[in-house]
Amino acid sequence: MASTAAGKQRIPKVAKVKNKAPAEVQITAEQLLREAKERELELLPPPPKQKITDEEELNDYKLKKRKGFEDNIRKNRTVISNWIKYAQWEESLKEVQRARSIYERALDVDHRNITLWLKYAEMEMKNRQVNHSRNIWDRAITILPRVNAFWYKYTYMEELLGNVAGCRQVFERWMEWEPEEQAWHSYINFELRYKEVNKARLIYENFVIVHPVIKNWIKYAHFEEKHGYIAHGRKVFERAVEFFGEVQVDEYLYVAFARFEEKQKEFERVRVIYKYALDRIPKQQAQELFKNYTMFEKKFGDRRGIEDVIVSKRRFQYEEEVKANPHNYDAWFDYLRLVESDADPDTVRDVYERAIANTPPIQEKRHWRRYIYLWINYALYEELEVKDPERTRQVYQACLDLIPHKKFTFAKMWLLYAQFEIRQKHLQGARRGLGSAIGKCPKNKLFKGYIELELQLREFDRCRKLYEKYLEYSPENCTTWIKFAELETILGDVERARGIFELAIGQPRLDMPEVLWKSYIDFEIEQEEYDHTRGLYQRLLQRTQHVKVWISYGQFELSINSSDRLQKCREIYEEANKGLRSCEEKEERLMLLESWRDFEHEFGSLTTRDRVRKLLPEKVKRRRKLTAEDGSDAGWEEYYDYIFPEDTANQPNLKLLAMAKMWKKKQEDEEEAEEGDDVNDKGDDDEKDDDDEEEKDDEEKQGPEEREGEMETEQEKEKEQEMETEPEKEKDDRPLAGPSEVRESPPAGASEEKVYDDRDDDQESSSSSSSSSSSSSSSESDNDDDDDDKNDQGKEEKKKKKKKKKSDSEDD
């Protein structure tokens, strides 16, 4: 309200809102409160401090505060913080009775509130109200016995007051509830503070029964050790081992027991404890035990003890592996290697017997390959380490009896047995064993080993017999024939060796006949029987026309020191070239010609070199159609082909291609000439007009008889040209011999690489992408020749028209 000079009140004008539409940016109440908080617009200054000067003002102040607290409690009785604040305010005014009354009222509301009990008891303790405090703690632990804070505070107060008996009594009441481990430790520490070791021992006895954990037993033993009761400590460890047994035992108990004995210098007891534990705890759960055992042996044991620890650990690992999979032969090998390094022979034999008892379940050789080495190692151990030949012989015989020889055998085992018998100077036993092996299950390796054995013994007659048996068993084995012949050659019986070779090449089936023939030829060359060698080459060439045979034949003739060796070598090349003309493998023919070219380059003259050079083929690139397995079109493939000048059947096609190439070149030259003529068109037109006028004048000067003669000669020339083009058209119209015969004749001594297309005419028209290779395909060359003929006909028609015009003008 505002007042004017006349004393009248004036009502302020209310602002009129013209635009009542909602604002674009809406402001929420939350945003307004946040901005007010940030700007601190509602911060009120603290109330002024009021000084109370007399009792009446104090009473008024107390009444006002109590009324406020009571109002808060009346609003929400369950908020314990209001009760606590009220009681603490009364306590600050030394109104303990009022504060006690407030706490009691609060406990009536919520007697399970832990904070309320703690604040209540602390207030009584601060005001030295001991009996009240005891009363409150008793009530608290009776109502809430599982709250450890009440017990801790209660025992602390009693001990602080020096009431040891009362504190012990509280602990006893607490232990009846079997609290957590820390409560027991507090009780034990309380007794130890007053040197009550026996009572602490009794507490430990109850403690390890209430909480039967290994660490508690270890703490109990350490307690006895700390107070000098070694016998009691050892007894505690022994009771712990008995208590947990072998089911729930842990390695940490044995480690602690061993360390306890180690501190007492009882090293034998420590060793016994570790070994006892290792025998009963699984090795995967005893890593720490092994570690401590190894450290102990390094400290107080000898080298033997350390090795025993390591060996025992690894032995247990291998035992676990072979128990899990008895057919894991690799684990058996490792186990046996470990046992052999540090064990007595009886233990090693026992492990070997356990290993070889695990025969493969399936009689297939691939399953026996690893198993058979157990027997081999067993026999070698008995022979080399134990030096017991009789037991070694028994091992070999048992192994050979176990192998199913009707299905498969192991030549290695027979040969090792034979070598063992020879080392024992029992030659008949070795021969008997190998003979029975060949009789039961003949194999190439057995024959080779037996023959090698007899060769070392220089028993050549036995070697011959063995070779004969070997060849009866495997007549197609060329290596055996060659070795047999080499043996006879070494022994100086050349005719016998030659007879062996003759028998060998006469066999219907051979695995490597080329090696056999080469060995036979080399044998004859070593014996310098060149006529026999030539005969062998001739016989071999009757069987095969392989290019390497021809080249080898030529090299043989060239290597002989004779006057006509070059001529014979050249004749062989000539004959080989004629023989390989019908060969489909053009690479072999090319290889022959290249070898011939090298020969002529080294030993020939210019004439012979030119002749061979003319025989060399031209390398061309071609394309052929591929077909998939299901018959569908798989595209085109490029390959290289060789065109030999001697193949006369391909000459017409080559001539046709050459003509096509010349026509294409002519077309390109004409196009270039036309481009050059466009520049001089104007000058050429003038010159043409002058030339035409001169021609007309000359024609007018000529007589009619001369003009008729010229016409006749021109007609005769035209007929001759038509006669020449007709056979070429016939050649173009003839069907080609095949797509592979479309070739181009190269210049002599040059090998140009060209692209030819083997596709048909219909396929040619459908593939527009292959227009770049049109000059090399047969159908395109025909089209080019047809275009060439059309162009020639068009030119001839133009000439005829010109002549008709001239004749008409002359007639006029």
TrEMBL record:
InterPro entries: HAT, HAT_Syf1_CNRKL1_C, Syf1-like, TPR-like_helical_dom_sf
CC per GO annotation: nuclear speck; post-mRNA release spliceosomal complex; precatalytic spliceosome; Prp19 complex; U2-type catalytic step 2 spliceosome
Localization in the cell: Nucleus speckle
Family under the similarity heading: Belongs to the crooked-neck family.
Keyword set, alphabetical order: mRNA processing, mRNA splicing, Nucleus, Phosphoprotein, Repeat, Spliceosome
Name of the featured protein: Crooked neck-like protein 1
Comp. bias (Basic and acidic residues): 714-735
